[in-house]
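Hey, can you fold this one?
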Amino acid sequence: MFLIFRPSLLLKPRRFCRYATVTAQTSAQQRSLNRTKYQEMVKKKPPIPESVLVFPNRSANAPAIVDTHTHIASTYAAYRTKYPEGRFSTVHELFRGVTEGHRVEAVVDVWCEAPVRAIWRELADSAVSEDDRAQKWGGTEYYFAMGVHPHEARHYNDDVEKNILEAMAHPRCVGWGEIGLDYHYDLSPRDVQQDVFSRQLRHAVKLGKPLTVHTREADEDTERILKAEVPSDHKVRPPSTFRDPIFDALFLECNQIHIHCFTDTPEFAQRLLDHFPNLYIGITGVITYSSNLNTSATIKNMIQPPSEPQSEATSDRPPTATGESLPSTSIPRGRLRILLETDAPYMVPGNIYDAPSLSTLKNKRLPICHTAMIPWTAEFVASVLGDGRTAEDVLLEARENARAMYGI
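Sure. Predicted structure:
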């Protein structure tokens, strides 16, 4: 290859400067034109009106809703981001605005950040008196749980732990969580996640607090740590609220565990259910997603006839209050050991877009999830079970499970 040297290039460098300037100007003009076209395109697609977040009232005879896992402050922040000029100007206003007329009986608000967000106390204190709950929460019973999420485990320290222990003494606190392991994102080193998970479990067991557990793609380590740190005969509270005498004996000496937003393998779920007789699987709107088949398979496993063989893990079930060992068939698979939850502002149920009130959305998606969406998750659960249960049946069973799990 021969290179031709042109002295004129050295003698007249301004030619290249002028060319570069013209090119830069052209590029800037093109970017400006593209930006204008994009803005015009956006204007042609109006944003989703916030009015669609408020659904028509449910029947006064409809089963009550209990949302066992939501993030209320984060939901409000997401709402304000999407609707800076929105009509709900406070956390309480948004909550009342979307839940009024939907028979929302109780919620468990989950705080899982490190450091602990100071606003937790403001919301918790606003629910201490019955008058405040009526005025600020629209009559809904507000409760909360607190812990450090595995994503935040790297920020866990003595000060964070001190703040959580302080929160555990609050009269509206019903659990420690969400805590656990997340190997999908690995936002904290795995060894740190494991250490922080174990540390929090020990405190929760010592205090007798129900556990809210997050686990994702960490089956083996989650199961190992839970079984090592949480005795299956650990007593949380007297079962004064349990209404089913068939299972009272099982609950006398069992720790309440809520496996939140379960999406892992059905086999893993069954091992946990067999080992911990008072463990529940949390079901969010993610069960409706076509990319997730595990959650549906997990709940279908629960309704298998009692005569079918169960996992060998049932052999290490705890004894009853009388000291007798429980046979492997003592917990029939027909019992639906689930809790309904939103994980708001995430996990909008996919089947909600069939609702008449959302017919104008076409291919758009709701920007946030909230507690009033629970019935659509219950409806999908009923369709998956296919055993004659209705959405109302699912809501009623989940409501009783919430009472057993958190005492609410």
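Residues 87 and 323 are 58 Å apart (CA to CA). Let me know if you want another pass with a different chain boundary.
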